[in-house]
């Protein structure tokens, strides 16, 4: 049996010249946990070219959403960037990943810390009603180089806040902290610096990061992950996994090419 299914592209949105998102149909039997990723791809010279992508849609939605970078000479993204409604893409059958609630012990607040396309798994997680039951506050932190790269995050947050079922609780509990590093904006600086300084918490009247009360999910570039892990370690957080839940979890924002 093939390890992938073909799904039809339902729509594509280009956010900047470097970023786009797209929706596809979803196989009925495809089940996943919010925050997980799957292999997706296209046939290239007769062979599947597959890369890991986080689901940016929630597991109760009929379609799948993905958020991607475009790299002009990237083997997959340069091709994916041209997909159109009605095209087919390959979607793996085995979702997996560490950004899942079972890998975290109970806490009061959930921080979702991302850079660039690392926000994708959190687009899924902020649509999960269970996180608003589990945590008193949910803080989505998203760092990009430029202001226009924040647009996807703005849209997912405003969608959740306007949602018929989740809106009321999300308007109370979901906080959004977008920041950029390379041009003027309301918040400026790297996510690591703004968490370390306490600026993120202060914005919402929350205390400094505390391993007793806070749980942290992290998704970004390898350099961002290594700086975030250093911050977590020095603040007393413990990395979790499903077999041994802890106070933070990390995942690479996979596709860089
Ligand atoms: P900077 O502009 O200072 O490099 P990228 O598109 O390269 O993945 O970057 C996305 C965002 O992540 C940028 O704002 C970038 O800041 C930031 N960034 C890059 N490296 C790190 C790091 N080690 N820790 C935190 N943020 C980082």
Give an overview of the whole structure.
The chain is an alpha/beta fold. Helices cover 23% and strands 30% of the residues. The protein has helices at residues 77-80, 120-125, 129-134, 151-162, 167-173, 191-196, 199-203, 222-235, and strands at 4-14, 19-24, 37-44, 47-54, 64-69, 88-92, 109-115, 137-144, 174-180, 214-220, 248-252. The model has no long low-confidence stretch (mean pLDDT 96). Bound molecules: adenosine-2'-5'-diphosphate (A2P).
- Listing every helix as H and every strand as E from the N terminus to the C terminus, the arrangement reads EEEEEHEEHHEHHEHHEHE
Shape: globular
CATH architecture of the largest domain, please? Answer: 3-Layer(aba) Sandwich
Name the beta content range: 25-35%
CATH topology of the largest domain, what is it called? Rossmann fold
Small molecules in complex: adenosine-2'-5'-diphosphate
Relative helix content: 10-25%
Number of strands: 11
Unreliable stretches (pLDDT < 50, length at least 5) are: none
């Amino acid at each position: 049996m093939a390890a992938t299914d073909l799904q039809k592209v339902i729509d594509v949105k280009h956010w900047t010249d470097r970023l786009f998102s797209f929706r596809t149909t979803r196989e009925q039997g495809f089940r996943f946990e919010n925050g997980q990723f799957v292999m997706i791809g296209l046939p290239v010279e007769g062979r599947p070219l597959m890369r890991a992508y986080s689901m940016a849609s929630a597991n109760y939605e009929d379609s799948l959403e993905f958020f991607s970078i475009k790299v002009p000479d990237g083997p997959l993204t340069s091709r994916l960037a041209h997909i159109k409604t009605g095209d087919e893409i390959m979607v793996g059958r085995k979702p997996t990943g560490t950004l899942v609630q079972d890998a975290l012990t109970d806490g009061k607040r959930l921080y979702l810390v991302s850079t660039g396309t690392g926000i994708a798994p959190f687009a899924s997680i902020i649509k999960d009603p269970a996180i608003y039951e589990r945590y008193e506050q949910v803080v989505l932190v998203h760092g990009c180089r430029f202001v226009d790269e924040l647009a996807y995050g703005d849209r997912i947050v405003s969608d959740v806040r306007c949602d018929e079922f989740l809106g009321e609780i999300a308007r109370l509990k979901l906080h959004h902290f977008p920041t950029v590093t390379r041009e003027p904006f309301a918040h400026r600086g790297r996510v690591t610096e703004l968490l370390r300084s306490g600026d993120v918490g202060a914005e919402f009247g929350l205390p400094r990061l505390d391993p007793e009360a806070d749980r942290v999910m992290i998704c970004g570039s390898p350099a961002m992950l290594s700086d975030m892990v250093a911050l977590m370690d020095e603040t007393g957080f413990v990395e979790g996994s499903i077999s041994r839940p802890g106070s933070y979890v990390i995942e690479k924002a996979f596709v860089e090419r």
